[in-house]
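Design a sequence for this backbone.
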């Protein structure tokens, strides 16, 4: 079973997994380098926008999904992340397979979490600091919820042609892109690349059917 763990949705779910510190795997940081000064307000705005959707009682689930889809596509480098998750298979996958995968991936991310996000409407995210790490700026935040342990997170932000985008997220010391890549690699090894795409398409279709009920 594939367990998607991707930016924004993963933060709102505040998931933690037993993997040792992954921060060192994204380059060398300098404590004296705060990175791009625009990264902090970018993350603050992104997170506030996400929680605003959760807390808006006037929105139905379909309207909320549409808003989340817009937030994800505009602020998260979904295509870059998706292709990075299958980097070991890209050389052998056909153009048609890659096209099918890229088409299914964004909706799969949204559907994996949309119905569960409402449980986290009472969470609060506080930005603590920013650190430059190679070409990226890491934005350190803390997620707190009533009667729950706080979870420290690191947003990896990149400047993509003048636009800031979330490139990865580390939650509780877990590099989510690496974790997801391992899940996808394992699934493909057992079932094949086409089976992964079929799995995502099937999950998307089931979610759409539920929404129409």
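Sequence:
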């Amino acid at each position: 079973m594939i367990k998607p763990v991707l930016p924004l949705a993963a933060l709102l779910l505040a998931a933690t997994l037993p993997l040792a510190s992954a921060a060192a795997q994204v380059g060398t940081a300098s404590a004296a380098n705060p990175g791009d000064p625009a990264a902090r307000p970018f993350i603050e705005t992104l997170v506030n926008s996400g929680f605003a959707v959760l807390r808006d009682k006037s929105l139905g689930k379909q309207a909320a999904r549409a808003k989340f889809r817009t937030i994800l596509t505009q602020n998260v480098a979904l295509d870059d992340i998706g292709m990075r998750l299958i980097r070991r298979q890209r050389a052998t996958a056909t153009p048609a397979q890659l096209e099918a995968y890229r088409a299914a991936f964004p909706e799969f991310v949204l559907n994996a979490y949309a119905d569960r996000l409402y449980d986290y409407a009472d969470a609060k995210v506080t930005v603590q600091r920013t650190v430059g790490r190679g070409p990226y700026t890491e934005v350190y935040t803390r997620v707190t919820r009533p009667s729950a342990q706080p979870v420290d997170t690191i947003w990896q932000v990149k400047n993509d042609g003048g636009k800031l985008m979330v490139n990865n997220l580390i939650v509780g010391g877990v590099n989510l892109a690496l974790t997801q890549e391992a899940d996808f690699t394992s699934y493909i090894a057992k079932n094949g690349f086409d089976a992964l795409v079929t799995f995502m398409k099937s999950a998307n279709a089931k979610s759409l059917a539920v929404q129409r009920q």
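The longest strand covers residues 124-133.
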